[in-house]
Each structure stands twice: as structure tokens, then as C-alpha cells.
Amino acid sequence: MLLRALKFLFLAGLMSLPMGATAALQILESRIEAPDFVLRDVQGKHHQLSALQGKVVVINFWATWCPPCLGELPSLQRLWTKYQKRDFLLLAVSVDDDDAALTEFVRRFRATLTFPVLSDTRLSMARFWPLKGLPTTFVLDKQGKVAAIVHGARRWDSIETLRLIELLMDEPRTLDEPQS
Fold it and tell me: Phi and psi (nearest 5°) for 117?
């Protein structure tokens, strides 16, 4: 049911966006705690959000049937390439309802997409996050709180995005930790 609603919202949103539009990066004034999850990636490795504290985490909800989602994958890869050796993690959470199709997609593009791709075919994670369509992306600070949200596709290697990621990485790991 949620997947059907997401597909409808995606199509409605696609019709309302001008060609070449980039979704706005919504910075939250008051950061909110991100819902914890445990999901496996297409290689079978489990990822638990609460175990990632101390890293800036970008969580991108997408699907293989979503053209804007596919359009932003190259810029997500460039973001990952730039920061993967720092306190940063990019998780692409697929809401495809067919694990085999997702696995085949990732296999075909493994050379160009090197960040973790997680499968949420049962929408066990997605139902706890405020998705208004696909793609939807959440940027989490080192404390595991949502610092920014993007509803729609954007260039993830834009100056605005890179500046936000840098600022979040420069923040202390915990609220009690002094800034250096």
C-alpha cells in the first residue's frame, strides 16, 4: 500500500516539476532524532543506523523505476567518492518491491556505484520516515539527528550541499564534546 502511494506521489510530483529542476535542500532549525533501523545491503551486510553515530550520514530513498532517482545517482556517487574516507556514510535505500530486480540493477552498475545500496522491499524502514515521494533524502549529523531533508532529485555535489556536509563533519561528535 505504501509503495503504491509512493509511486502515485512520484508521478504527481514529476508532472509538477519543471525539466532540469533541482529540489531544495531544507535545513531544519530544530534537528530531530532519526528513527533507528537495521537493513541489509545487496551484498548481505547489515547496517544499523544507531551504530553510525559519529558520522555524517546521507540516507537516500529511491527505486529503480524512478527516473529522477536514477538521474541523481551519479552525483551521489561523486559525493561518496569525495567523502568516503572521512566520517561520512552514504546509504541508498531502495524501496523496490522486487529484490531480484534491485540485485540485478546493482550488479550491472557496481563499477560506477560503490556506496552501500540497502533493500527495504517490505518498507520496514520507509514507513517510519516522512517520505513525500521519491527520491527523498535525509542528511544526518554526527549525533544521528536529521539536519536536512530533500524531497526530490538534486545535484549532490553542488556547492551548497558540499558546504552543508563540511559544516556537519566539522561539528563535535557529541553535544558535550568541545569544538576544536
Answer: -115, 115
Could you give the CA distance from residue 36 to residue 38 in angstroms, rounded to a whole number?
7
Provide the whole-model pTM: 0.85
Closest CA to 146 of 25, 33, 8: 33
Q: What are residue 42's phi and psi, to 5 degrees?
A: -70, -15
**Residue 31 and residue 29: Cα distance in Å, rounded?**
6
Determine the distance from the C-alpha atom of residue 16 to the mean position of all C-alpha atoms in its chain, rounded to a whole number: 22
The amino acid at residue 123 is L
pLDDT in tens, 133-166: 999 999 999 999 999 999 999 999 999 999 999 9
pLDDT at 175: 57
- List CB contacts of 77: < 8 A, sequence separation 6 or more: 112, 113, 114, 115
Q: Which domains can be identified in the chain, with CATH numbers?
A: 2-17+24-170 (3.40.30.10)
Q: Is 64 helix (H, G, I), strand (E, B) or coil?
A: coil
Q: What is the pLDDT of residues 37-63, one digit of tens each?
A: 999 999 899 999 999 999 999 999 999
The angle at the Cα of 55, spanning 103 to 172, to the nearest 5 degrees, equals 170
